[in-house]
């Protein structure tokens, strides 16, 4: 008889150790944490002889305690307690296991569940789930089945099981984080692959448009596109989506797809941006996202660009060492439909042997020598790289801001549109008024003589150009307007004269030469022009222009 009590204590102790070992192993190896908690609670409740048991975990977003598993006559899974509420809340805050011998007398006891279910709570045993000060939740046992009270041995056992369960929670969360991270990496790789596939292919060196995109992360919010059109012109666009991550990537993909689809039929970049804006406003504005975008059409024949800019960085035109910028005409896309009307302002740009650069704010906001690059810094980098071939030029600019092996702070995207024709002997844009013609005649004379024309041929060409300009002033505009004149000598030794105006398109059927007896300024007509020049033709005008007259003369 004297040995029976120690033997019972020893048996109970070993049974407790067995339970702790078995449940610790199950917690450590489980892939179904919720199911393990449910089964574990049943074993603990049976072992300690409790009427009910529940496990609460802290909701990281709200701080509330949420019941994740329970056993007993009442199902309280999903029950939410405010931080510090009830005996469970006190145990989590104090991180100390406790025994409540008389629940009704405890000021922290909440009788709401009892009132709703009819269950009677008499005593409580509760232990925290915590690891290194990280408070994750608590296990709570209710009422001994024999009507007795929980004792310190029960508390010690539950505290040990709580520590084991807490480790299981931490491990499960770490495993979930690793799985989520791996899935995220796969999704980012897939998204990055889709984005790379949407960029235009690398163009030949002699192609007039080239671009580069250097993302700061796996996916980029920047994009550019180049699209050859059926009539020989080339559409292009560059854009920057606000925000980062998948949402920005999806909006970028949608915007780029809309451009590629619409640019095949809509040749006016302003109307194209207006349509894209209307589409984006259905989705982008709901999330507070928007897109800065510039789009244009390049005409290789005239060397001109028609540009529309919606909230994007001002493009820079570099001609003869001088930069000209072109500010945005409307706010970014995706904010409001009426902010980008179909008749938004478009800018006609004669490149005249120059190069138009478009870029995202990753360039202007990049750091160079511990200072923001800014617009002046971008000009400096473009000037320094101006003599390089197109692809090397773009790479040189990007490498200055993000050397190989490094990552920039923001996406870097740069697009260039270059007039690849022979450099003009003269490129001038002037007011269509008679007062401008005197100076123009002197400049034309100097240009054609520098191209190799003799005095007589030079005088004839000056008169032909003067006559064509007189016709534009008198019959094209009938008032104010602008004219673009370019004169260049091609590789075959032929002098090319181009006149582009923005007056209403002429009716070629109504252009007739005047009688030679009726000679007066502006009245020599096409007869003299055709007699002086080898070839005279009206060509399809660049998008945004009214008329395009091209005259050629072989220099002998």
TrEMBL record:
Keyword Hydrolase: yes
Keyword Glycosyltransferase: no
Keywords: Hydrolase
Signal peptide from the UniProt entry: none
Protein name, UniProt field: Serine/threonine protein phosphatase
Domain GAF: 32-179
Species of provenance: Telmatospirillum siberiense
GO molecular function: phosphatase activity
Any Pfam family hit: HATPase_c_2
Chain ranges of the PPM-type phosphatase domain: 204-419
């Amino acid at each position: 008889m004297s040995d029976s009590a120690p033997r019972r204590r020893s048996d109970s102790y070993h049974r407790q150790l067995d339970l702790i070992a078995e449940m610790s192993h199950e917690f450590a190896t489980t892939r179904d944490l919720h199911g393990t908690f449910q089964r574990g609670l049943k074993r603990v409740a049976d072992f300690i002889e409790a009427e009910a048991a529940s496990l609460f975990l802290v909701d990281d977003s709200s701080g509330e305690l949420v019941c994740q598993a329970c056993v007993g006559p009442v199902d309280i899974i999903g029950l939410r307690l405010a931080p510090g509420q009830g005996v469970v809340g006190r145990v989590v805050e104090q991180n100390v296991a406790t025994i409540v011998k008389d629940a009704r007398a405890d000021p922290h006891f909440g009788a709401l569940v009892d009132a709703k279910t009819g269950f009677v709570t008499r005593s409580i045993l509760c232990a925290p789930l915590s690891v290194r000060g990280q408070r994750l939740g608590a296990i709570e046992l209710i009422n001994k089945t024999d009507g007795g009270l929980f004792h310190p041995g029960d508390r010690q056992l539950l505290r040990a099981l709580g520590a084991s369960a807490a480790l299981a929670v931490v491990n499960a969360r770490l495993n979930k984080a690793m799985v989520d991270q791996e899935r995220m990496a796969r999704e980012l790789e897939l998204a990055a692959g889709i984005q790379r596939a949407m960029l235009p292919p690398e163009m030949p060196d002699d192609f007039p448009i080239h671009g580069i995109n250097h993302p700061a992360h796996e996916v980029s919010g920047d994009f550019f596109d180049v699209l050859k059109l059926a009539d020989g012109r080339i559409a292009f666009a560059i854009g920057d989506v606000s925000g980062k991550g998948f949402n920005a990537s999806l909006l970028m993909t949608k915007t780029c797809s809309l451009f590629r689809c619409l640019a095949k039929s809509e040749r006016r970049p302003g109307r194209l941006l207006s349509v894209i804006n209307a589409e984006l406003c259905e989705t982008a504005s709901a999330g507070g996202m928007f897109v800065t975008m510039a789009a244009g059409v390049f005409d290789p024949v005239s060397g001109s660009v028609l540009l529309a800019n919606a909230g994007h960085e001002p493009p820079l035109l570099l001609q003869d060492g001088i930069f000209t910028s072109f500010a945005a005409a409307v706010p970014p896309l995706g904010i409001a439909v009426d902010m980008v009307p179909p008749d938004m302002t478009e800018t006609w740009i004669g490149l005249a042997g120059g190069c138009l650069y478009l870029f995202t704010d990753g360039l202007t906001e990049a750091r160079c020598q511990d200072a923001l690059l800014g617009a002046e810094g971008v000009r400096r980098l473009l000037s320094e790289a101006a003599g390089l071939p197109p692809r090397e030029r773009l790479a040189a600019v990007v490498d200055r801001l993000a050397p190989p092996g490094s990552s920039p702070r923001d996406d870097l995207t740069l697009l260039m549109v270059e007039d690849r024709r022979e450099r003009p002997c003269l490129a001038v844009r002037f007011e269509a008024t008679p007062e401008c013609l005197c100076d123009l005649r002197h400049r034309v004379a100097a240009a054609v003589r520098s191209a190799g024309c003799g005095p007589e041929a030079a005088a004839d060409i000056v008169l032909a150009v003067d006559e064509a300009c007189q016709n534009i002033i008198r019959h094209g505009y009938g008032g104010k307007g602008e004219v673009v004149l370019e004169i260049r000598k091609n590789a075959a030794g032929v002098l090319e004269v181009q006149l582009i105006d923005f007056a209403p398109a002429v009716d070629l059927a109504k252009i007739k030469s005047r009688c030679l007896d009726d000679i007066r300024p502006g009245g020599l007509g096409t007869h003299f022009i055709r007699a002086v020049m080898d070839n005279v033709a009206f060509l399809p005008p660049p998008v945004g222009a009214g008329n395009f007259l091209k005259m050629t003369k072989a220099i002998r």
